[in-house]
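Researcher: Next entry in the queue.
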Amino acid sequence: MIPVEGHKGLYRDEKSNAIVNCNDYEYQEYLRAKNSSLEEKNEIENLKTELTEIKSLLAKLLENKT
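Model: Structure for this entry, 66 residues:
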């Protein structure tokens, strides 16, 4: 691999001409950010599901009172 000028940890693959980041710390930071984002999305989806369930239960309570 060929080092990219002015960019520590970046290399150009000779066969594919792709830029490859060989900095382990940056890769671990990327993975942490990605996992954090996925956890937030899952939490939001869970809250949406729970809110839908609460709405449904409230609607049933209102139906039973009338």
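Model: The chain has one helix and three strands.
Researcher: Noted, moving on.
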